[in-house]
Amino acid sequence: MALVYITGISGSGKTTVRNELRRRGYIAYGTDEDDLAHFYNNETGERIRHHVTAEDRTQEWRAQHTWKVERAAIERLREEAQDTPVFLCGVVANDTGDFWDLFDIVFALNINEETLRHRITTRTNNDHGKNPHEFEGLLNWQKTAQEDYERLGAVLVDAMQPLNMVVDEIVRKSTTVTKKQDGAPTHLQARKPGGGPHQSWSSNLILQSSDWIITHSAYRTPVRHHTKDLTYVMQHSNVGIFNTKEYYNVFIDFHNDGRFKMLYVNVATPAELKGGVLSWTDLYLDIIRMPDGQAELVDQDEFDEAIAKGLLANDLAEKAEAVASDLMPLINRGEFPFLVKNYSETTEEIARHFGHQKEMFPSLENVSNGVQII
Hints:
The chain has eleven helices and 18 strands. By secondary structure, the chain is α+β, with helices and mostly antiparallel strands. It has helices at 14-23, 59-64, 71-80, 95-98, 113-122, 132-151, 163-174, 300-308, 314-333, 343-353, 364-368, and strands at residues 3-8, 27-30, 37-41, 65-69, 86-89, 105-110, 155-158, 186-191, 197-208, 212-217, 222-225, 230-233, 237-243, 248-254, 260-268, 272-274, 277-289, 296-298. The protein has two domains: 3-174, Rossmann fold; 186-368, FomD-like (FomD barrel-like fold, Beta Barrel), CATH 2.40.380.10. Helix 1 (14-23) crosses helix 7. A seven-stranded mixed β-barrel has the order 8-9-10-13-14-15-17. Strands 2-5-1-6-7 form a five-stranded parallel β-sheet, sandwiched between helices. A two-stranded antiparallel ribbon has the order 3-4.
């Protein structure tokens, strides 16, 4: 089953879709209607427990408060979605940064400016947008909403269609989502030395042995770039190969049709899988190999800058340089785990290496259709 997020700008019809899904017998929640979202004070982190009227939501007040949902609330919905589809309808400020990775598929309801103006000015069940400054913000948001949601990998739905057609489309496309087979999602997290998360995304745990962990990340998987404070969408699928004892990990990237795109090797600390999170510390140096090309060391400038700023201890820096030097000829040789083959050949060789069938990996059809496998 799947956890489905139905989002979009205010006035796009999220509450109406929620109500229709419920009428049809589906489990559907609203961030606003079901008390999941609340205002929080940006400075203290305190939750505002009383209703805040349109008159109270001045520009100054809004600058000091954020409409959010706690990740734990979405994790509870994901547990509920293990046995039956669960739909969440709404929009909050922290969805892309804090829990976008927990959804199996995201739909964005799309409307034009004329429809937005009409719905905001005539609706009586929600006072958001009644303030001039909120209304102006919604008009500005509408101009970029479609592009923003496309960048995040959401499935766009024309919400100016009749309601039954909108909900039919969402229900139909939700049934194509494939979830991972072995339970809770595996969260991949790259860290920088001495710091917090660098990049993170959800993936499918394919195999775990004493020395190796194999993952698969689907085409158009959202990736949270914590260092740059943004979310982008992976424009490829990949197979991740992690050695739990060696100072590197490998990502083999594939085009949408399964063709080999790039081999990306991170010089990093051995990966650890704990509590559903597979993490490693990136040591700045990376090695790439393109189709028909030779291994190339990249990010030397970042490595040198990290040393100069004292972000990388001398012993780790020496270790990273030695590992990179040792890896170059191995990567050029193209043997496991440094494979430079298409998706079918790569998955077949990995499966054979561990004595499994290639069916342990998602099918190319799922990969090419951009199915979120988490």
